[in-house]
Amino acid sequence: MLIKPEAMKRIAYLSLFFLMGANVQANEYNASLFGCKSDGVTNNTSSIQYAIDFIANEGGGTLHFYVGRYLTGSFELKSNVTIELHEGAVLLASPNVYDYLDYSGSRALIYANGQSNIKIQGKGVIQGQVPLFTANMETLVSKGIMGRDSKQLLPDLIRMENSKQVSVDGIMLLNGLENVQSYVGCTQLTLSNQIIKSNVYESSTGIFLSSCSGVELRALYVDASGKALREVGKNEIRIQENCVTPNGKKL
Amino acid sequence: MPTKRYILSFIFFLLISPVFSTEYNASFFGIKSNGTTLNTTSIQKAVNFISEQGGGTLKFYVGRYLTGTIVLKPNVTIHLEEGAVLVGSTNIYDYNIDTPNCALIYGKGVDNIAIKGKGVIDGQGREVAYHLMDQIHNGILADPLDYDRPRNRRPKAIYLRECSNVRIEGITIRNAADWVQTYDQCEDMVVDGITVDSKEFWNNDGIDIVDCKNFKLLNSFIDSADDAICLKSHDASKRCENVEIRNCVARSSANGIKFGTVSAGGYKNIRIINNKVYDTFRSAFTIATPDGGMVEDILVDSLHAYNTGNPLYLRIGARWNNGRQGTINQVVIQNMYVEVAAEKPDAGYSYEGPIEDNPRNISPSGIVGLEGQPIRNVTLRNLEFVYPGGGNPNYAYRGTTQEELAAIPEMADAYPEFSQFKELPAWGFYIRHVEGIIFDNVKLRAKANEYRPALVLDDVNGYDVSGLTVEEGTNKRKKQIFVQNSKK
Amino acid sequence: MNKLFLVVFVVIFQWCRAQDFEAADFGVLADGQTLNTRSIQAAIDHVHEKGGGRLVFSAGNYVTGTIYLKSNVTLHLEEGASLLGSNNPFDYVKDPYVNWQSMIFAIKQQHIGITGKGTINGRGFQTAINAVQNVHRGIVEDELKLDRVREWNRPENIYFRECEDVTIQDITLRDPGSWNQTYDQCVNLLVERIKVDSKSYWNNDGIDIVDCRNVVIRDSYFDAADDAICFKSHDANAFCDNILVENCVARSSASALKFGTVSRGGFKNFVVRNLTVYDTYRSAITFAAVDGGFVENILVDGVRSINTGNVIFLRIGDRWSKGKKPYMKDITIKNVYAEVPLEKPDAGYNYEGPIEDLPRNISPASIVGLPQYKIENVRMENIEIVYPGGGNPLYAYRGITAADLDSIPEMADKYPEFSQFKELPAWGFYIRHAKNIDFKNVTFKAARKDYRPAIVTDDLTGGTWTDVRFEEPQSEEKKQYIFHNSQNVNVD
Question: Which residues pair with C222 in a beta bridge?
Fold first, then answer.
């Protein structure tokens, strides 16, 4: 508990008497509560991470992003937390290489490891800024600050490892790098109703799966410059339906 | 005191010289130009005083004048000299938030007023909105926070209601927390040569002309996050009438020039002449009448739009109409050139328009009435619309069979927007529920090949498409016109 | 009196004309908007891994949250370069080791510095306001004491802990959210030619030196809402040792040069030379040993204190001592000229000092120990203090009868401040519970007649007073010093 009982009481009191937040359930949180700004230029990383940790500590709930553009670097999803991107909401990936944390050798805008019951849903967008990002990275390489092997530093828009009951539903994913989204060692993984468009980076994989089980792929449109679906190791894809690429083929 | 005597005699002198428009310097009332002194009460006193003296001009010279709400009084001109900035307080409680339509400059039922000069009104809207947000999160002010932003109490920069003989000239208006300027039921009003730069927060409409009569918007530049030039009708017993919009340039992350969305009464005799639209997310020109408003006698002449999401969208809906049927009748659109963007046209602007209504390929222009409630008598003359083309049926598909066309929902009560139907079956023009439409020298061009035809007519009575020419990528022999349930 | 022992040391950092690295090369943007936290951190790490050097910020505005400085790295801010603190409280780390927030941390690093004529601007006012909002929203816990977030939950500009060979040079430090810069248990610290403008929010100290050894602060300017130049001792087993403060100017809405308030370990071997104080609300010089700490072997030579509420306040208290015995001894204060104003000296500054301890007439300089802990061996030489005088007994009164003097409370566990006793019975100097207090060539002037004598001593044993002079209008016959329970004071 991050809030003292007195504080909770005070909030409850205020809520009651000023009849505010009537449309917000106890475990539903607006991004603005944590100071997130939808202006497209404020880097919201710390606020979003604080919000997720806070909600996880409260036992779980949903963090709502409404219409607007929310610039952010890496953050980690925690068990029982849902990110809801309402139609018109864009999570805008920072073009700064260093805004992505190294999570035991891999990088991602949204990362989870060893979590359960995590969801990203809604009609919103997660958008990479590929030309800017790669230009920044090339500059660092040319100045000798980063090694030429820096490809391994390319962040995914979403990467989940060793997690279960994972769902990414309805989201539009734009302009990823090597992998738009990666899932490694996940179980009960559902990807559904996604639109993936990732053609700016030369060979961008739409969905990377490694050692996942209980995978369901439903209604995905994958327009990627690389492979739509790349599998490594043994994956158990239980269901694949209505998943197409731009030329109308299955994944 | 000699100075006092001097001042008194000065005032006396001014009072007995009715030949001159009486001018007062802001400093005369102790108004401070330091940017930190809150001048609300001093400015209000000045306005009241000048009005009580029979009118005159309050002059602000170079400097930053911090203030909350100022209520205008009859016969007073606010003159902002070059370099003068009227700066809105960032404290929400400095505004008349107990009044609907609170604003930095507020006027109701006052005549013979003006705001002039080369100065600036800066609403500091984002900071005001953030402060309001704090107060809502703390439970001090109640607000539903729909879309996670305050619905009520966001101050406009200017709100005038039921005023007549009004002039707004030359000024620059920046950064409101809500609509920038609203003129509601005003008469005999001219807005001339102003600049609007307002992209700092949601709902930053550039200018809202609501149920006004004899209104001219001339020679202005408007760059705003929400609709740039917007005519509205809030009152079912009123309407916008005799409005002229001429020689303006508009940029928006919504629509360039729009009628609606709220359109209770309607619009009559509106002349939109020689305007430009660029980098605009939605339509260059759009009329929406979902609330029972009657739209008639509309002329759009010489509208040029570049890098814009959609050229044209005319729509009747049935949203808050309370049984009244909205109409659109006698619309002439001529000499219009539009280049539709392949990529997001407002990318990089603050408060970009939302990515929505997906999946869809590039949307066509639309003229869409309702079943039994057609849009009547539309003339399209000398138009050229250039589209990127390239619609991919695997991404989004809408065919032209009878079933597929019939399956397009009416969406009568939905928010009217060119993209609302998601994928449409045409790339150039989709026309449904229309009575009387003429294509006279209309050219539709798609740069890349399309899976869709250029034009679909559905439930159109009395159409003439003989003046339509179509070019589409490398497709020379494609059937570009699909007609269903229609007659010439 | 024992001679002061001080090793004048010069911190020589020779990392062989270390290499310069441009911050811009790391994608650090000077646009005043982009949050650069992670880029700057990556740059510091890079320079550190390359063996050290300067990370150079050219002119521009660099927004950042918390960064950690590493060994052998100097942040060099060129003229016109500003590090701007983010206004989002969540962009700051509360370091678990020091349990405090800061924009720039260094913990257990060596050979580090911040140099150049640029600025570190915490923009702390807005950040502090935003932190309060987070508490009101129920998403951050804080007791909101005095309606502000506790100082450890607001970011400082700089917090260095257990570092060695630290150089802070030429920079301007502005507007922190809490204290400005803290050096805690550092060794070999050089602070020179810096400018501090620290009055944007509560607790904006100018500089805090906590339990450090071998410190030079010189040629610097401090303008602070809270204490300007402040030495503290947080650790009962550590103390501030071997410190030189010279050629500094200080302005404060609290005290200018202060030891304490937290004073667990102690303060030893100080030289303070050529200090100018002005427009300061409380004391020009104040030493507090209230938490069991000691103050020993201190030389203050050359103080000009203009428009400042109080000149000298030495105090032993017993607040958080936990049985540890405080002492204060061997202090020389000389060559002091001071003017005490009638009106509030910091009126008009942001975050003016609080009006408190009323009613009282102008407070005297004071040396106040406790019955069991006397302040010993204080020598005052070549001192002139000009008071406004005019103490009015109808406004506030403290007489000089034995009963009146004995009724002055000890206030052992109270926050030590020159005004804490409210009205005192002297207008020039009040001494209580002390041993061997010497005055030589000391002049007290009152501009107007005061109802009180110039000096009152109570429980003073020993001391030689030579050339002690008083100037007070219409008071030629007045007895200007009163000895109560005092003995062996030789007045020439």
Answer: C196, C250
